[in-house]
Amino acid sequence: MANDSFRTIQSIGRSELIDELMEHSSFEHSSVLQGHGDDAAVLDKDGAYELLSSETFMEGVDFDLTYVPLHHLGYKIGTAAVSDIYAMNGEPDVVLVNMAVPNKISVDMLKEIYRGIGAAGKDNEFQIVGGDLTASHQTLSVSISCYGHVDQKRITYRKGAHVGDAICVTGDLGGAIAGLRILMREKEYWQEQENQQAFQPDLEDYEYVVKRQLVPIARRDFVEKLVDMNIVPSAMMDVTQGLVSDLKHLANASGVGAYVYQAAFPIALDTRQVADEMKEDVDKYALYGGEDFELMFTLPEKKVEELSDEFEDFVVIGKVTEQEEGIRMQQAEGDVAVFDESDDSE
Fold first, then answer.
1. Pick the CATH number of 166-339 from 3.90.650.10, 3.10.20.600, 1.10.10.10, 1.10.260.40
2. Residue 122: is its pLDDT beyond 70?
3. In this predicted model, what pLDDT tens digit does every residue of 317-341 receive, in sequence order?
4. Does domain 32-150 have CATH number 3.40.47.10?
5. What are the domain boundaries of the chain?
6. Which residues are registered as beta bridge partners of 146?
7. Rounded to whole angstroms, how far apart are CA atoms 132 and 141?
8. Bridge partners for 295 per DSSP
C-alpha cells in the first residue's frame, strides 16, 4: 500500500469506518431487519424480533485497573451490553462473554469480573450462557454480546423522529466523565506518593459521580414504564458517546435536525461541583463526556405530558427540526451554536 493512500481511522471517524467495513458484508439474510447503524441488530424470527448487540472493553483504553475494581468492571460491562437492548425498547435474555487474559490476571480476579457481570445479570434479568477465553501478552480485554427480544409493535429505532417531536433525556448527563476526572486525579496523587501502598484516596465527597463512572445503571426502569403506559417513542438510543455525537446519530438516522437548549441539560449538582473544582465547563461534560448510559428519545408533545404524569426522571432538552437546520444549541446567554461534523466525540 502506497503511503499516499494510507488513511488514519481518526481522519474518517468511527461511523464512516464502520460503514466502509460493512461494505464487505456480501450476503444479505432475509431475517435481518436492521444490521449496523443502530444500537442493536434486529432479526425477524417467524414474527418474533430478536436483538443482538456487543461491546468490547480494552485495558488502558476503556478502563484502568489502578482504580477500577474488577467486580465494578464486570458490572459496567453488563450495563453496557443491556443498555443497547433497552435503547431498542427491548428486554435482554442472555449474554456471551469473551476474554483475552494476560498472566497478571489470576483465577480469583477473573471470578471477580464474572461476579460483577452476574450482579448486572440479576438486576437486568439476563443469564450468562458462555463465551470464550484466550491468552493475551499484556493487557486484559473483555467482549460481551447480548441477545434480547422486543415485541414487533414496540421496536424503536434511531430512525423515526418527526419534526416537532420533543427531544428528551432520562436521568442526568456528565456524571460519568466527572467521576473519571476524579479517579484520574487521585491516580496522579497516588503516583506522587513515596509510600504508595499506604495511600488511601478520600472519595466520600465524590461518591455520586464515581459510582456513575464505575457502576452505571442501565435504564430498565424507564423501558418498563413505557410498557406499562403503552407508550412507544418515535426514536430512541442510549447516551454513551456524549450528547453531541449521539444527537447526530439520531438526527442522521431520522433525516432531521435538532434544536436543544443548554439551560435544559439535566446535570447533577455533584457533577457541577466537580467541574467547578477542576475549573472546567460542566456543559462540555454533558456534550462530549459519554458513558452516562441514559436514554435519549423523541416523543410528540402530548405523549410527553402523558409520560410526565407517571415518570419524573426525564427532561425535555429540545425539539426535532428540519434536516437542513442541522444540530443547533441555544446557549444560556441566548446565542445559538451550530455543531458541524468536526464537533464530534468520534
1. 3.90.650.10
2. yes
3. 999 999 999 999 999 888 999 997 6
4. no
5. 32-150, 166-339
6. 53, 95
7. 12
8. 238
